[in-house]
Amino acid sequence: MSKLAETARLLALSIIFGGSVAIVFVVINNAREGRAAGLDQATIGLANAPLFIHFSKLALGAAIALIVSEAADFFTNPEKGKCTFARYGTSALSAILVLFFALGLTAPMADMLPQLKSDAEVVAKFDKLHKISQPVLGTAIALALASIALSGKRKKLQPET
Question: Rounded to 5 degrees, what are φ and ψ at 22?
Answer without folding.
Answer: -65, -45
